[in-house]
Structures are given as C-alpha cells and as structure tokens.
Design brief:
The protein is an all-alpha fold. It has three helices and no strands. The mean pLDDT is 70.
C-alpha cells in the first residue's frame, strides 16, 4: 500500500540540459573527491598535523621562555619547509 506504482505514473519531463548538468556535477564531484583523498594521504604521510598542534599550543601562550621561543621558531621553520617541499613536489 502507499508504494508508487511506476507503471501508471505519468512520465516527468527532464529539465533542459539535464544529462549535461548531471555529467558536469559528477565530474566536479569526482575531481573534488580525488583531491580530498590525495590531501588525506599527504597529511597522513607527514607530521604536519602534529607539528601544527605543537605550534598552535606554543602560540597560545604568552609566557614562553627563551628556550620555548627558540623551539617555536624551529618548529615554524620546519613546518614552512615541509609545506614548501610538498608544494614543490606538486608543482614538479
């Protein structure tokens, strides 16, 4: 009961350009999904997320010692170097 009997339903007209719009949406979705998956693999293969958390923790403090400031600067340099290396590999 309550199920639509497709044999007796009136056919609905497709919107103009529907196949092309569907194909374009599918291509955009697949490209975005692939980019997302590549991004996840790259993040999983490096320590940027852990390093980013450490940097943010240091940046959130206003009472850093000289040693902690030096560590922060070194972590930032490492992070920038890592991101630049990944970007350079992508560009190559």
């Amino acid at each position: 009961m309550g199920r639509l009997n497709r044999d007796h339903a009136e056919p609905q007209a497709l919107p103009e350009g529907a196949p092309e719009r569907r194909r374009a949406a599918s291509e955009r979705f697949r490209a975005a999904l692939e980019a997302h998956q590549r991004s996840q693999v790259e993040t999983a293969n490096d320590n940027r997320s852990v390093l980013q958390q450490e940097i943010e923790a240091h940046l959130g403090r206003t009472d850093l010692t000289e040693r902690q400031l030096t560590e922060l600067e070194q972590m930032v340099n490492l992070f920038v170097s890592n991101v630049t290396e990944v970007d350079d590999r992508k560009a190559a």
